[in-house]
Prior knowledge:
Layout: H1 13-23, H2 47-81, H3 85-137, E1 172-175, E2 178-181, H4 183-194, H5 204-221, H6 227-239, E3 247-251, E4 257-262, H7 264-302
Amino acid sequence: MHQITTMKKKLSEKEEKEFQEWLKRDDDSTCETYHDYATYVLPDLDYKYQLIAIKNLVAVHKDISDKNTQEIETLNEAIEKVTRRDYKEYLFGQRGEQLYVNSYVNAAHSMAAVGMLAPFMESIFFQSFLGIEKGENESFFPDLNIDLVENKSSNLHQRWVQATHEKWDCHFVWHKNRRQEDLVKGILQLSEATGLKEFLPEDLEITLKVLFAYRNKMFHFGLEWPSEEREKFWQRIQNEKWPSNWIEAATKNNDEHLIIYISDAFITHCLDSAEAIIDGISRFVFKAAEQQLKQYNKRVSEN
Length: 303
């Protein structure tokens, strides 16, 4: 990939040609090389191969789950055909045990998936914002949107009036000039402040909220949470109207939620969201590079 640089001095004929060719590459988000634009703000993170690795392991786990599901279906078919009472009861027992084991397998696969996806998403945003900070310091982002939100002390976004370097740290959010630790809100606030928001998925907030909420529960409590935590989490799903096909649970006859796990649909959604986020960051950088070229051409024409 051609190195992106700020154009404060006149480029050589060769450099200008290279930059023009780099900028005018295929703008199709499905093009494999399009994501290269994000490397300007993510120079130390190989998101392409991380995603490949995550998808490969998710696929392995899905094959295991599908095999377990097929075994349960086979038992169901056998139960329907068997007439001997004692053998039917035996098959019922086998099916019950398989269902019980499958609940733990699903939870283990959920922990593995969230253990890969949550840090990946967090790292993508954390490192991107640090990369944007570096680019802003180098004047690569001439249109960095720093005046979206007015506050009492300044017409700048409330993050930019902070003196600390932590204003670029998405683990924190500022409200009325007070800092709070909140990763999801920090990501959303920084995305708004920088102008990255318009390039990101519309359902980013709910996706991150569900992903990190589930990650926190699993990594604090393991596969089996205290009953109070399970019911509080399930109530949160209802209260905040999370998509009904994202979270599943193994239950008792009285509908008590025993083990809570994320669905294949949500895992697929997170993988798609990760692709869309990288694509959005790429478009954000592309727009800045395009603006750089316009400013350069304007300066050349004026000289």
